[in-house]
Amino acid sequence: MIQNEIRRDQIENRLVIVAPARGRRPHGVLRTSPPEQHSSKPCVLCPSRLDREPFHLILPDTRGSWRIKVVDNKFPAVSLADRRAYGLHELVVETPLPRRRFENFSVREISDILSVYAARLAVMRQTRKLRYAAVYKNVGELAGSSLPHAHSQIIATVVVPPAVQSRRARFKLAWRRRRHCPYCALARAEKKGARRIGESPGSVAFAPHAAAFPFEAWILPSSHRTSLTEFNNQELQGAATLLKKIVGFLARRRLAYNVVLDELFGAKEMHLAIKVLPRGTFWAGLELTNGVIVNPISPEVAAAEYRRFFTK
Length: 312
Hints:
The protein is of the alpha+beta class. The protein has one domain: 2-Layer Sandwich (HIT family, subunit A), CATH 3.30.428.10. Helix content is 28%, strand content 23%. The strands form two sheets. The protein has a ten-stranded antiparallel β-sheet, with helices on both faces. A three-stranded mixed β-sheet has the order 1-2-13, with no helix packed on it.
């Protein structure tokens, strides 16, 4: 049996208490996400509504419509017109069909979504003053999803969040001390370790040593990549293959989750990570007081569960 253990993520600079004993509490461990409710109101992301809006990018289908469409977020957190909150906030509508669930997308469809992210990040990188961008997808009410229609968001800002500044400093320190990228070394190590989830051409998936969430999974490119814009087609396909399997596992367990990645423009010492963050637990007093996170499922156990699912 795995004992409770305090673990540190040196790059993210966080402490996690892996506490399997917490799973024996009377109310269990994970909160499942309630089924998504499709409103009777008009669908705001369907073609009948969205085709009236200006767009930044579309991937067309064979019938003269679109498969993926990128538009401005109608309720932006930042805007190029707002001097006090300057930036871009876009919506990536991943399908014209309102009832399609992300776990049912094909590998090619997920790869196309990643390529759209890359295309928009390339534009944002060239936009005056913007320094940082985050891509995120919320699936399920417990993960913050407000619309069931499959979509994700990209936000780019002039401000670099303090956590990202800290992460960059730790990447730089690792380069100075060891003369190599810590995530390149991590990808090589996790391919052979107990936290390995799976591997595909160009990427490895694993449960991180100091996972903040039960069944948290990371996808790291095996080669040094600072941005999705540096991925070739095979690498996009490989990352999409792993992502599809991971979200399929979470859907089977009815867990809400976030898919996130971010990029600090021009920071060549950093290494991209696609992170899948299941939201089966809530942070409470300890986490909110001092940032120390309790995870009731060890990453080693989580990875073993993922591997069993992958081989079915």
